[in-house]
Design brief:
binds pyridoxal-5'-phosphate, single chain, 2 domains
Length: about 350
């Protein structure tokens, strides 16, 4: 099966499994797992931050950041379709008493700074206290422009607000820009990075920031049940990925670009936008139910208009996908027929 639903579906490679099998371990709640410690140090180094914390998921890593930056009665400004608002069960509000203030993303994945400025609440006891502005990079596969990040950082400094990045796919952004991850991370107080997406690990995310923030996040992680013991088994996969699976992300980007070029030649397909990283986005009017059935018959799994390319998609798979798309005919007369 060719699975395009997400880059979370990758299976650990034989080399990654070997690294996990031979990992040195200790009790990480005591800070004694050498492999976890090495992963945290490596990630801090790669992102240019003082410290890092290994977490079981990106949802928890983002929550640790929100709980560490904000207190009960604080507010964070966030994209309306951001993971940290829409896809994390309302965790910041449920568990932290932190109120989200969602704004629409611009088409390029940024939060327009004029809208952010208007949304920041004045110091008035009627209002929650605006504390943090959270961005996402990549956002729907799009890379936030560096000059936007500079302007965001300047504005946050001027307003005295904290900066968190949901960098679940930060390395995709860094590779697309041809820059070290640290150059993006420099614009944020904290960044959450996923190991379980394009990097191909079975589990795990890492939160990076300054020592004080990470010490605080470590307390929250324990409280939330995220203190893991011989987690070096999992961290070894992360270390392996940092060495072997970052530079290759450009292959995933090239595959997405190739598929987009092929689809652009077909009258039956419309792209919502040009891919910048590992995602092909089809137009909203794509007849997904019949396309899904057609692709399923060719051994290809999709969930909707977002097709995600990853470690487990080969060049042959891309050929098969393009062939299957070329033979797709939306059923004439079906109610989902494209206008
Ligand atoms: C996947 C993802 C996360 C974290 O998800 P988990 O499944 O909890 O690891 C966070 N943000 C974005 C944008 C994501 O795509």
């Amino acid at each position: 099966m060719i699975d395009l639903r997400s880059d979370t579906v990758t299976r650990p490679t034989p080399e990654m499994r070997d690294a996990m099998l031979s990992a040195r371990t200790g009790d990480d709640v005591y800070g004694e797992d050498p492999t976890v410690n090495e992963l945290e140090e490596s990630m801090a180094l790669l992102t240019g931050k003082e410290a890092a914390l290994f977490a079981p998921s990106g949802t928890q890593s983002n929550l640790l950041a929100l709980l560490s930056h904000c207190q009960r009665g604080h507010e964070y400004i966030v994209g309306r379709t951001a993971h940290t608002y829409l896809y994390e069960g309302g965790g910041a509000a449920v568990l932290g008493g932190i109120q989200p203030n969602p704004l629409p993303f611009a088409p390029d994945g940024t939060l327009p700074l004029e809208a952010v400025v208007e949304t920041i609440k004045p110091n008035d006891p009627h209002f929650a206290i605006t504390r943090l502005v959270c961005l996402e990079n990549t956002q729907g596969g799009k890379v936030l422009p560096l000059d936007y990040l500079r302007a965001y950082r300047d504005l946050m400094e001027e307003k005295g607000l904290r900066r968190h990045l949901d960098g679940a796919r930060l390395f995709n952004a860094a590779v697309a820009l041809g820059l070290p991850a640290a150059e993006i991370c420099a614009h944020f107080d904290s960044v959450s990075l996923c190991l379980s997406k394009g990097l191909g690990c079975p589990v795990g995310s890492v939160l990076v920031g300054d020592r004080k923030l990470i010490a605080n996040a470590r307390r929250w992680r324990k409280m939330l049940g995220g203190g893991m013991r011989q987690a070096g088994i999992l961290a070894a996969a992360g270390l392996h990925a940092l060495c072997h699976h970052i530079d290759r992300l450009c292959d995933d980007h090239a595959k997405a670009a190739r598929v987009a070029r092929a689809l652009a030649q077909l009258p039956t397909f419309t792209l919502a936008e040009e891919p910048q990283t590992n995602m092909v986005m089809l137009a909203a009017n794509t007849p997904i139910p019949s396309l899904k059935d057609h692709l399923q018959d060719h051994g290809i799994v999709i969930s909707g208009t977002r097709w995600v390319f990853h470690l487990d998609i080969s060049d042959d798979d891309v050929d098969r996908l393009i062939n299957a798309c070329q033979s797709f005919q939306p059923e004439a007369g079906s109610e989902e027929r494209r206008s």
